[in-house]
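FAQ: What does a multi-protein file look like?

Like this. Sequence, then C-alpha cells, then the next protein.
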Amino acid sequence: MSDLATPNVIRRADYAPPAFLIDTVALEFDLAPERTIVKSTLRVRRNPAAAHASHLELMGEQLEFVGASLDGQPLANVRAHEHGLTVENVPDAFELTLTGACNPAANTTLSGLYVSSGNFFTQCEAEGFRRITWFLDRPDVMATYTVTLRADKAAYPVLLSNGNLVDTGDLPDGRHFARWEDPFRKPSYLFALVAGKLVALEERITTGSGREKLLQVWVEPHDLDKTRHAMDSLIHAIHWDEKRFGLELDLDRFMIVAVSDFNMGAMENKGLNIFNTKYVLANPETATDTDFANIEAVVGHEYFHNWTGNRVTCRDWFQLSLKEGLTVFRDQEFSADMSGGDQDEAARATKRIEDVRVLRQMQFAEDAGPMAHPVRPESYVEINNFYTMTVYEKGSEVVRMYQTLFGRDGFRKGMDLYFARHDGQAVTCDDFRHALADANGRDLAQFERWYSQAGTPRVSVTTSYDEAQRRYVVTVAQGYGDASPAARETQKGPLLIPFAIGLIGPDGADLPLRLEGEADAHGTTRVLEVTGALQTFTFVDVPVKPLPSLLRNFSAPVIVEYDYSNDELAFLLAHDSDPFNRWEAGQRLATRELLTLATRAAEGRPLELDDAVVDAFRRVLTDETLSPSFRELALMLPSETYLAEQMAESDPAAVHAARQFVRRRLAHALKADWLAVYERHVTPGEYEATPVAAGHRALKNLALSYLAELDDPADAVRLATAQYDAANNMTDRSAALSALLGAAASTGGDFVQRPLQDFYERFEKEPLVIDKWFALQATQRGGAGRPVIDTVRALMAHPAFNLKNPNRARSLVFSFCGANPAQFHAADGSGYAFWAEQVLALDALNPQVAARLARMLELWRRFTPKLREQMHAALKQVAAGVKSRDVREIVEKALA
C-alpha cells in the first residue's frame, strides 16, 4: 500500500473518463482463510470517449500475483507492483484473465475480503475490490458479473454473491460450488460475497407487477430469533418504494446478511446487502426502541439504494452525495411514513426533530471545523474520510429542499425523469439537479451552490408592522457569519433558500398569508424563495401585529437569527401550529438560559434559573394534548456538545455544571409532575415495538432520569430498581440501569453494582447488549474523586473487550471520547492522552475506524487555552506516530 508515502491530493477538476471499459467479469474464488485464490476473466475494450493509452493500468493492493493470459495465451508483458498491475501494449478489445491470491484471515482493515467468526465477507466501497483482484476499481466502470464460489462444504455450507443463483453442486474432496449471475451492470464497489455457516429467515412476496420474489435474512444460527423485525422492515421498504416512487424490486431474490465485524452500518451491494449485526438483530429482550427504529431506517436505506445508488450510481467519488444524500432523504421519508403516514403531521414532525437534532449537533460542527467541505467535495486524500455528515445528512437536506420547492408531486416527476434518463449509468449531482429542474420547468443554476459551498448559512431576519396599512415587512439577509477557513474558501455567492414562514396572532392562531401583489391569501405557511444577500417580503391585510414562526419544518439547513424575547419563545412553545418550531422555541429558550449559566459557572458566580423557564417546561410536561414522544423531545435539554459549540470559547466543564444545575432544578421543581408522568406512562403487558408505545416509554424513562438528579434520589432508586428487575424489554432495562448510574454519581451509593453485574451475566452471550453495557459505563456522569477515565481504562482490560471489533471499540472508546464531554475534556488532559493511545492502536489495525476517532479533536482551536494546549500536544503525538493516510489526512488538516 501507499500509506507510508506522502499521498497525492485527488481533485474533482482532474476527472477524466477511463481509458478502458470492462463489459463482463467472470470471477472464480477458491476460498481458504489464509490463501484465497481469485481468478478473474475480463472482457476489456478501449473507451471511445477517452484519450488513447497503450498500457492497461489496473488497481490492486496486498495481492499475490499468480499468473495472467490475454485472449487465452500466457501473458509475459504484465507487471504487478505495489499499487496494481500494468499490462503493456494491449489491443483495442481483448479478454484478460488474471489469477492472484489474498489472505482474508489477516485482513483486520475489514476492507476487501476478510474473515469474521470463521465466515467470509466482503466490503468493497469505496476501494476494497482492489484488495480482492486487480481491476479498474472506479465507480464509472460498470460491468455484468458471473461469480463462482468454491469452498469446503462442511466449513462453508452457504455460498452467496450478487444477483441470481444459477447453479450449485458438489466437488471432490468434500468441496462444493455455487454460481451466481447479476444481470445488471454495476461498478466493482457493489460486488459482494459471503460464505460460511449461516441460516436464513425466508419470505416470498409478490410485487406490484405480480412477480414473486424471495427475501432472505442470513445470520449465524443462534441469532435466527432476532431477524423478524429486519424482515418486516424490508417488506415495508419494498412496498413503500413501489407506492411512493413507483420503483420495484428488480432481482428474483433480495438478501441481507449480518456480520459482527463491520466498519459501517451496512452496505447496499446489488441484491446482497451486508449489514452490521447492530442494524439487523432485534428482539424485545436485547434491542431498545431506538434499535428497532434504526433497524427499520437502515434496512430501508440499503434497500432504497437498489435504485438510488445501484441502478443509477455515481460517476466518481466526489458525487457520493448523489446516492447517499438522496437515499438518506428517502429513508427519512420512509421512517416518517411508517410512524405517521401521510396525515399524522405530529408523528412525522417527531421524526423530523430527531433528524435535525443529529444534523445540528454533528454536521453543523463539521461545517465549523478544518474538515469542512461542500456536499460535493472538490478534493480528498483518502475517500474513506468523506463518508461524512455533510455528504449524508446535509446532502439529504439539499434533496429535501427540492421537495419543499416543488412539492411531493413535483419531486416525483423529477425522480421519474432522473431514472428515465440515467438508468444503468454512472452520473453526477448536476445530472440529478437538471432532472428536477427540467421536470418542473425551473432554472436551478443558483441551487448548484448548495453542492459547491461549504459552511452553515446564517439567515438573519428583521420585521416591522404598520398597523395603519396592515402591512408586515420581513427582511431576510443571508451569509455565513464567522465560517471556518476551510468553508470560506468555497463560498462564491448567495444561495437559493426555501424559507418557510408562518405568522401567529396574539390569540395563538395562524393568520392567512397574502404577499403584496397577490389577489388572495394562500394558506398559513408560505415558502419564501430567498435568492439575494438581502431581500424583503411584504405581507398585506395583516389585521394585528403577529409573531413570526420562522423556518417551519426546518425547510433549509441554515441557522436563523431573530431576536425573540423569552416571553415570545414561551408563546411559540405553547401555541405554534408547526410542531418542529414549537420544539425549536423550547430549545432556543433552554439554550439561551444554559449558555448564560455556563458563562456564570466559568466565572465562578452563583447559578439561578428563571422561574419562567421552569413554568414553560411544566406546561409541556403536563400537556396531555401533546404526544408523549413530542414531550420527551421537547423536555430533553440541548446536549453538552452542542452547547459548548455555541460558546465563543468552548468550556465543557462550565457547560456541564450549567446543564446539571438546570436538570437538578427541574427535577426538584417538577418532582410531583415527574412522578405522575412516570406512573401514567408505564406500558404494562407484552412489549410492542410501535411508535406510540415507544413514545410512552421514552417519556416515562426521561422522567426517571430527571428524578435521578434529586439530592435525595430515593424515589428514583426505588423506581429504577423495580423497573430493572421487572423489565420485559431492553428499553426499560437499560434506562433503569442508566438512571441508577446517574443517581450513584450524585450520591456515591453502591446500589448500582448488583444490577450492573446482573446485566453483564444475563447478556454475556449477546455481543450487541454487552456493547450497551460498555457504553452505559463510558457515558456515566462520574462523581467527585471518581473520574470515568479510570472506569474506561479498567474496562479496556475486561475479557469481553476487543479493540479489533468496530462495534466494541465504538461502545467504549468512542462513547467516552465522543459522548461524555465533561469527563473526556478533563482538566488534567487524561482524556486526550487516552484518545491519542487509542487512535494509534486502531491505526495499526483498522485505519477507517481510527480516522473516525481522530476527528474528535478537530475543533481543538475553539476550546479554552489550557485544553487547547493539551489537545494540540495529543494531535502532535498522533501525527508523529500515524501510519495510514486515513488518519494522517485528519490530523494534518486539524493542525494546519
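And here is the next protein:
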Amino acid sequence: MTTENDTTADAVAPPTEHSPADPRFAALPCRPGKIVAIHLSYASRADQRGRRPQHPSYFFKPSSSVAASGSTIERPAGTELLAFEGEIALVIGAPARRVAAADAWSHVAAVTAANDFGLYDLRANDKGSNVRSKGGDGFTPIGPSLIDARTVDPAALRVRTWLNGGLAQDDTTAGLIFPLAQLVADLSQHFTLEPGDVILTGTPAGSSVAVPGDVVEVEVSVDGGPTSGRLVTTVIEGAAGFDPDLGSLPAADDLQRTEAWGSREAAGLSPEPAEGAEPTPSLSPALREKLEAVPVAGLSAQLRKLGLNNVTIDGVRPLHPESKLVGTARTLRFVPNREDLFASHGGGYNAQKRAFDAVGGGDVIVIEARGEAGSGTLGDILAIRAHARGAAGIVTDGGVRDADAVTAVGIPVYSAGAHPAVLGRKHVPWDHDVTIACGGTTVQPGDVIVGDRDGVIVIPPGLVEEVVDAALAQEDEDAWIAARVAAGNPVDGLFPMNAEWRARYGAERASAAVSGSGAADLRSPNRKVEPDAAREAGR
C-alpha cells in the first residue's frame, strides 16, 4: 500500500514484460484508465505555431484509441488532413495526488514512444477538446517497448519520427517549455494519476500530414542508451465516412491545412502577404458588370494601346461559347510527367486537389499544362467542386476528360480540347497560386481573366479600371460608327473618324447627355445595329 503522497522510487512498479490479452495494449502493463495529452509543450512547435503558452493545457484521449506497433490507421472517407505527432509517453507506476514537482518523476514507471494522430478536418468543431479529431480507433499507437523511468534522466530523452524513411521530427526534452515532471505534478493537482495511466507529453516541430500508403515510425531513446524501438504505423484509406444527420461533417480550411502540414508552403498554399503589402485586388460588382459588357476584342485593343500585346491565352476554346467568363486568377501548374515525381506528388491530396479546394467565389482556375492536350487536366468531379465553390470558370491549355459531363456542370471552361487519358499520362501536379504560363502568356494570382467566343485575355489588376473604361468608350464609338456605315456612309474618314466626324460624334454625345436620352444606348456596346434603324439615324 502507498499513500497518495508517497514519492519513493520503490513505490513505482517497474515495466512489466506481461502483455495483456488485447493486442492493442501489448506494450503496456494494462489497459490505461485514462490517457492525458498536452496541446503545446515543445519550444520548436510553439515557435512554429507562433504562440507560446504560459501554462500547459490538456485533453483526454480514450483508451480505445490505443494501437500496437505494426498496426494500421484509417484516414476516414471524405477527409484529407490526418497528421502524425511523434511523442514521449509516460506510464504511471504509482498513484499520484498533489505531488510536488521534485517528487513527481518517482511516480513514473516507464517511458516509451507514442504517435498522437489527429484529424484536422474535425479539429475546428471540437474547439480544443479533440474528442473526435484525436479520439478515433487506432489514433494512439504506443510502444513497442518500455524504458524503465528509473534508469533515465527525464531531461535527456530524445524523440524522433520518420515518414516513409525520411526523418521528420528530432528533438529532446531539453527543448520542452514544461519539464516532464511538471506535467505529472500539475495533473496530480486536479485528479489522481493511477497506475497504468498514460501521459502524452507533446510533439516537437516537424509534425505533418500522412496519406494512405505512408508509413510513420516513432522512437524514444537516450543517446547511447536504451530505446523504445521503432513504433510503426501504416496509413490506409477508410471506406466509411460520417453521417450528416448525426453530427458535423469534416471540413478543412487554409488554417487547418497550414497547421496540419506545418506551414503554408508545405500545404501548397501561397505565402501570406508581407506586412504592409497591397492586398490582391478583387472585382467589385460594378467593375465585374463593366467587364461582362465589353467583348474580349475591345479589351485586347485597349491593352495593345498600352503596349501589352502578349496577354491572350492562345489555343483554348470554350465549352460554353454563349457564356462570358469574368474573374480573378487562381493558378495551378503541371510539370511534365516523370514517374518518380508522380509517385511523390501525383497521389493523395496533391496540388491539383488543393487548388480546386482553395478556389473561392469569382475566382478563375488557370492551369499551366504547357499546351499538352494529350491527357486530361480536370474532369467532371473537379469541375463540380469548382462550381460548388462559386468559381467563375476554368482555363487550361491542356485537355479535359469527361468533356460532356464537364460541359453539363455549367461552369465556363476553356481548354485545348478533350482527351480521355488520366492526368498521369503527361503531367505531374506540382504547385498552385504561383506565377504560371498558360497558352503562351504569363498569368499571376490576382490577374483579371475575361473570356468570350473570341478567346481569353489576361489584364493586370492595376490596369483593369483604365482598360475597361477605355474599352466601353471605344465600344460606344464603334457602335455609333457602325450605325453611320449601315446608313450608307463610306468608311473613309469615318473609321477611324476624321476631325469632321469626330466633332459630329462629340456633339451628339453632348446632346444625349444633356437630354438624358440615348445614354443607356450608347453604353450598350454589344447591341446589334438594325439596318432600318441605322438608316433612320443617318438622315
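Q: Is there any per-entry metadata?
A: Some entries carry free-text notes. For the entry above: The radius of gyration is 32 Å.
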